[in-house]
Design brief:
Order of helices and strands: HHH
Structural class: mainly alpha
Helix content: over 70%
Shape: globular
Oligomer: single chain
Distance between the termini: 51 Å
Largest sheet: none
């Protein structure tokens, strides 16, 4: 059982990395995000996308497949847009 849980967590990280990278590809910009924040946006976007897809009647995740990657990427894009909206409200740092 622990091996399955670890592999499942690893697959979530891989899915999050792919979804976050695709979201950044579709919405390029000057966001100061490294790999870790990109993965976090991707994983959170995957959860958000799965929740919204289930809420809208499209179903949630089916495993590690193309459908799940599309849902996760759409969620990550939505999360990245929200992230950028909140970042616009911050005052610019002067150095």
């Amino acid at each position: 059982m622990p091996e399955f849980a670890m592999m499942n967590g690893f697959l979530w990280l891989v899915l999050g990395l792919l979804a976050g990278a695709l979201a950044r590809f579709f919405l390029p910009g000057k966001d100061k995000m490294g790999c870790i924040l990109t993965v976090l946006v991707g994983v959170a976007g995957a959860y958000l996308g799965g929740f919204l897809a289930t809420l809208l009647g499209f179903g949630g995740f089916r495993g590690f497949d193309v459908y799940s990657l599309i849902v996760a990427t759409l969620g990550a894009v939505l999360l990245l847009v929200v992230f950028r909206i909140f970042r616009k409200g911050e005052p610019a740092k002067r150095g």
